[in-house]
Write a structure and sequence with these properties.
Largest sheet: none
Strand content: under 5%
Low-confidence stretches: none
Helix content: over 70%
Number of strands: 0
Radius of gyration: 19 Å
Number of helices: 10
């Protein structure tokens, strides 16, 4: 019992740190000039080590950059706390297992997608590539070559499906209806969940995005919707509630 508390606390601290790193990747990754990741994205002054402590630094700096005085959004410490909580919960729910590792991966990727897509309307390729490779390796190590091959094929089939949807949508609406990053993110769904649950993830993600789409349509006509955060949230929900969703799909279909 005591060792469990120690592991949970340790994962929470690691989650805070990885949450901060994920935020920095989401902010700096899409920029052309990203020589230094530990600097202010406004004035480019390098932060000192104590200005990079998750949560603590936000309050020490009074919510603003010490150099240019630009306000730091409350969203960032909030995401760090969420990251810590989710990583601690990964052990509480699954123990040391394949599912725990995947939940940690999804937490990191979710934060990167949230920050980069909401801020720049970009989903970075490199995190998707790295985590796709890691997931496929984990599939092979935990479940064998057959599951690895099925997951690989599922990812590419979902990718082809979304490319077709993107092409048809572009022809119907006369403009790009689905971002390339969203298509690549959907391929990652196939690697993690397989075809059936990936389709369910896309459907749930569309429903989650619908209220935002209505709001943008009524208040900011023509504004692009960052679809990635809704998709990654849907992926997280489907993964955590995989068993009941699978049971529901088995009954319906």
């Amino acid at each position: 019992m005591l060792i469990d508390i120690y592991i949970i606390c340790l994962l929470f601290v690691i989650g805070l740190i990885l949450g901060m790193v994920s935020i920095i990747i989401g902010i700096k990754g899409p920029l052309k000039n990203r020589e230094y990741f530990n600097c202010c994205d406004n004035c480019n002054n390098l932060y000192k080590w104590y200005e990079l402590i998750p949560i603590v630094s936000f309050f020490l700096m009074r919510g603003e950059c010490n150099y240019c005085k630009k306000e730091i959004s409350l969203v960032y410490p909030f995401l760090e706390i969420i990251s810590g909580m989710l990583m601690a919960m990964s052990y509480m729910i699954y123990g040391f297992s394949y599912e725990m590792i995947i939940m940690i991966i999804l937490t990191i990727l979710s934060i990167i997608v949230y920050v980069s897509d909401f801020k720049y309307y970009i989903i970075l390729d490199s995190p998707l590539l790295v985590f796709s490779i890691v997931v496929l390796i984990l599939k092979y190590c935990f479940f064998g070559f057959k599951t690895f091959l099925v997951s690989l094929c599922s990812g590419f089939l979902i990718f082809l499906f979304m490319m077709i949807v993107r092409y048809i949508g572009s022809k119907i609406f006369g403009q790009e209806s689905l971002g390339g990053g969203d298509v690549k993110l959907s391929m990652f769904f196939g690697f993690v969940l397989g075809i059936r649950l990936s389709i369910a993830t896309l459907v749930i993600g569309s429903f989650l995005a619908f209220p935002c789409a209505i709001y943008y349509a009524l208040s900011n006509k023509g504004r692009e919707i960052p679809f990635g955060p809704f998709l990654i949230t849907s992926l997280y929900l489907v993964f955590v509630f995989m068993e009941p969703i699978n049971s529901f799909l088995s009954v319906v279909f």
